[in-house]
Design a protein that fits this description.
The chain is α/β, with parallel strands linked by helices. The chain is built from 3 helices and 19 strands. The protein has a 7-stranded mixed β-sheet. It has a 5-stranded parallel β-sheet with strand order 1-4-7-12-15, with helices on one face. Strands 3-6-9-14-17 form a 5-stranded parallel β-sheet.
Amino acid sequence: MSESDRAAGLSSGGPATGVGAADVVPRARNTKRSYLATKLAYNIGRLHGLSLRLYLYRRIGMKVGKGCVIRRGVYLGSPNELELGDGSFVGRASLYCTGGVKIGRNVNVSDGVVIITAKHDVNSPSFEANYEPITIGDWAWIATNAIVLAGVTIGEGAVVAAGAVVTKDVPAYSVVGGNPAKVIGERKRQPFDYVPGSYRPPFL
């Protein structure tokens, strides 16, 4: 898919062990189950008590690994299409998951991040919506206010800088920034021992 096609997407509004684009099946449209799960997740996301929220998220079909944190105030569209790997952290972000979102282990999704699996065909008479999966590899960091568009794969250990708009795949251990995001650096390949999900802010 071309970069311009992905950029047009801005107009739309069990535990994981690893990630791969082939593991996520593209979705044609929303379903009644997704709509219901979205409404339930909105209310769940405002409850106090991390353990309670995670329990309820799992009950509505979300796959959440061990040792994860999902902060209060997050927006999860179609959470039944979201898979979150062990030790990962999701801040007060907005995830539109209808097309399928797979997040690996020990990933940090910071506050203000927007992840969108939907886009609209601007040449369609009916403004047709299309959905493509997003995959985020183990140990990746999506920094504050970054936007990740439909069909993107972010490689293991990659870093998406604050405010970046990701319209195409991000290589493993690269650092990308800007709009559209481009490679601006490399991350050292090394054994990581931090776990983003171990962070426990007050009143979580």
